[in-house]
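If you are new to this repository, start here. Below is one unmodified record pulled from the training split, so you can see the exact layout before writing a loader.
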Amino acid sequence: MHICVLGQGYVGLPLAVRAAEVGHTVTGYEPDRARCEALAAGSSYVEDIGDGRLRAVLGSDTYYATSDPQDLKGFDVAVITVPTPLTDRAPDLSCVRDAGRVLAEWIEPGATVVLESTTHPGTTRDVLVPLLEEGSGLVAGRDFHVGFSPERIDPGNADWRLENTPKIVAGLTEGCLERVKAFYDTVTDVTVPASGLEEAELAKVFENTYRHVNIALVNELSRMAHTLGVDVWHTLELAATKPFGFTKFLPGPGVGGHCLPIDPVYLSHHVKARHGQTFRLIELAQDINESQPDYVVRRLQDALSRRFRRSVHGARILALGATYKPGTSDARQSPAVEVIERLRQMGADVTVVDPYLGEADGSCREIPFGPTTATGTGTGTATVSDFDAVVLLTPHGEFDLVRLAAEASYVLDTRGVMAAEPHIERL
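And here is the target side for that same chain:
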């Protein structure tokens, strides 16, 4: 089939490459021309897709990246994988609307359009379908097919990838569901049919709401345990020995990425705007997790005052990691970046080291720092002992934590990956 994937980011590019690998002819539509040029040259900016995989599908002529809407003509299946961010703390569906308008002109009878972008229940039926019908002059469910299949991409996760992660599929009609399922059966191992569009849309935002609320719970627990002088990390290990009725979540500097800080807001905002009701747990979890970077800064401030009788202002601080989780270059909504910015606003001299980010990224600067690399080699002149404090924000595997523990004057470990010692505090 001729498959068009609108949006070639963390979600769209893996889908496009996978579809090309299984034999479809794939058009990757990306309005950003710089990205298109990179893809055409075989250079992937999405770490889950190596340059080798990208060049293979380019070489076999099964994948083509374009920013020209005319290249969408004649598609059998079009999948929308565009961002759904927050603007002024409210859901922003402008990219979905733009994609719908672009696609509508090229819909032919029998074609299928699938939305993968995370959104609130009712978006596919009430927002996307009217745009497709208006622009095409065709009727959804009769002349062409429409569906929703929520993305479940976890950047950097080598165990659960697009092809082996169960894929929820939904359709506007039974006929639509059959077409949507038939496509995803070719690119994923397991498809899970939903009874309706709204159920599938709600399942996606609830998956991340579940994580968001539980992370907020353990973040709040870690604060209370610190006040009580109790080791929260050991407490969680003990609780996790229960073989039923308990799922282990861990504290941290906050939540980040393309899902947790955003998806629950889509649900709570929609419920409030449409029905005037408040989703209290989501709003409370949002308050807790959004305040976690400030809590990290306060802990570091207290430690500097208590141990060295100095303030954050003027202190030399080494911040390890700026992405939102280990093993990825994804810094979207990263709480580590917020911690770094707050420390700098308070006058701290912060050196940021993240092997996955460079100066061009804009979220931090990468500085070669020998003692934190896996091998202990590097070209930087700084040493761990030159810093008043180290704050471990994202525990990338490249960091030599054993050497860090031996050489640092003080470490605030926000992820609980280091053993507690007199000079090492865990959040």
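Two things worth knowing about this chain: The CA atoms of residues 102 and 223 lie 49 Å apart. The mean pLDDT is 91.
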